[in-house]
Structures are given as structure tokens and as C-alpha cells.
Design brief:
The longest helix has 16 residues, at about 170-185. The chain has an 8-stranded mixed β-sheet, sandwiched between helices. It has helices at about 40-45, 70-80, 95-105, 135-145, 155-165, 170-185, 210-220, 235-240, 240-255; strands at about 10, 15-20, 20-25, 50-55, 85-90, 110-115, 195-200, 225-230. Helix content is about 40%, strand content about 20%. The relative contact order is 0.15. It is globular and about 50 Å long. With about 260 residues, it is an alpha/beta fold.
């Protein structure tokens, strides 16, 4: 999952860390390796931020604890272990949802929130198509649908998803996470949020379509919404330079 990055461990926590300054904790998605955020990691760690990407224990916990809430609690324990009082949370897909729920449960921990292609309001195709898990071409097609440009779904990415859905234990936990995400709908909670939130969204996202971003923007009182054209579910992968530019500008405008 680390795909070329050297991780470090403190206690039970495994993570990548680069740079010095204000902390950005990056939260990966259900199918997302840490390398999905290489652009964010390299850019912000070289521009005055301490970027930390924990390996979330998506498949390491008992089944009953394989929930969005447990992952949100995990981030609180992780921050305490690192001695971090506050951090910016940046999450894609499931990672965005974990960031949102963490912000609800531990608002004192969160200086700012950045979500892109986040679950939490609406799920599309999370866990609905795994019966065909033995069919590599089918999995390849599903992986390509995540992006505007299907070439972004490299063989490495497709192989990782294929291996995951063909591992019975991981498949069961993937479905448990998907059900937990649906249960933890955030619509009623978001209007109470005070944290500044940056929403960066692909205009061509098929997993969490553009109307989901508009709904997040409407419900979150202190939010800014930015669109990335010709972009699917993972803006930080398809358009890393533009993603970083939007986010850095937002940091500067928000004094973060």
C-alpha cells in the first residue's frame, strides 16, 4: 500500500511524515493507497507544512469495530500519540467522511477541513458490484470509472483493487465499511460545524457526483467550493498541480 514510500511507526501507528510547520493529516480512501497523495505530500512539505499520512487500519480491526466512527476515534489517538493539539484534516472519499466525523466528535482537534470526493452524504457504487469479483476486466472497468481519464487507473491500481476484492476477509470488511458509511450520514450534523472547510471537487465525479459537493457547500456554514474540470473522484491524483494551487490559495485567504 505504501508503494515506494518509507513509513515509520510509533506504537501501533504506521505513517509517512514529511516537512515542518503546521500539521496536515491526510486521510486516504477505501481503495486509495498513500501514493495517491504524493503530489500533496511533496508540495506542501516543501512549502511550510508538516504533512502526515497515517495508514488507516481498514482491515486490521475486529469486524464489529470496522466502522467510520472507529476510524475517526483512531485519528484522535494518533494525534495524541504524536503530541498534536490541532491539525488540518484532508480527506478523499472515505477519508473525507472520516475527517467529517472526526470534526463532529473532536472539534477541538481540527483547525481546518479539506474534503474532495467525500462520502458522508451520498454513496454510489460502494459495495454494490463485488459479486463479479473474479472478473479482472470488470474490476478494471470499475476502477477506470473513478477517473475522468481512465489511463490514471494504472495496472498497479487495478491489481490492488482486484486483490482486495478477491480477499474474502478484506471484502467482508469493505462491505462493513460501506454499510457504516451509509449509516453515518452527516446531513444533520454539518450545519453545526464551525471549522473552515475547503471543498475541492471533480466536475466529472461519477462516485460522488457534483450535486454532492453543492450539498456539502450548502450545509457547511463556513465552506468554500472549488471545481476541477475534466476530473473524476480523485482530484489530487488527476490534477495534482491545480489541486495544490487551489488549496494553497485557500490556506492563504483563510490565514491557515
Amino acid at each position: 500500500m505504501q508503494q515506494g514510500y518509507a513509513t515509520q511507526t510509533i506504537g501501533d501507528f504506521e505513517f509517512i511524515e514529511q516537512g515542518k510547520g503546521k500539521a496536515i493529516i491526510v486521510l486516504h480512501g477505501l481503495m486509495g493507497g498513500l501514493s495517491n497523495f504524493s503530489g500533496v505530500l511533496n508540495y506542501f512539505s516543501n512549502n511550510g507544512y508538516r504533512v502526515i499520512i497515517p495508514v488507516l487500519p481498514l482491515y486490521d480491526l475486529p469486524l464489529l469495530k470496522t466502522t467510520v466512527k472507529e476510524f475517526a476515534n483512531y485519528i484522535d489517538r494518533f494525534m495524541k500519540k504524536l503530541g498534536l493539539e490541532k491539525a488540518i484534516l484532508l480527506g478523499n472519499s472515505l477519508g473525507g467522511h472520516i475527517g467529517l466525523l472526526h470534526t463532529k466528535l473532536y472539534p477541538q482537534n481540527v483547525e481546518a477541513l479539506v474534503i474532495t470526493g467525500s462520502s458522508g452524504l451520498y454513496e454510489n457504487s460502494m459495495g454494490d458490484s463485488y459479486p463479479k469479483r473474479g472478473d479482472y476486466q470488470y474490476i478494471k472497468n470499475k476502477a477506470e470509472e473513478v477517473f475522468y481519464d481512465p489511463k490514471v487507473a494504472t495496472k498497479e491500481i487495478v491489481d490492488e483493487v482486484f486483490d482486495l476484492v478477491n480477499d474474502r476477509s478484506k471484502l467482508v470488511k469493505t462491505l462493513a465499511i460501506a454499510k457504516s458509511a451509509i449509516r453515518h450520514n452527516m446531513a444533520k450534523d454539518l450545519p453545526k460545524f464551525k471549522v473552515p472547510t475547503c471543498i475541492i471537487w471533480g466536475k466529472n465525479d461519477k462516485v460522488t457526483p457534483p450535486e454532492v459537493a453543492e450539498e456539502f457547500h450548502k450545509l457547511l456554514p463556513n465552506s468554500s467550493l472549488y471545481w476541477v474540470d475534466k476530473c473524476g473522484h480523485a482530484a489530487m491524483m488527476e490534477h495534482p498541480d491545480l489541486f495544490n494551487e487551489i488549496l494553497m490559495n485557500w490556506f492563504k485567504e483563510s490565514g491557515i
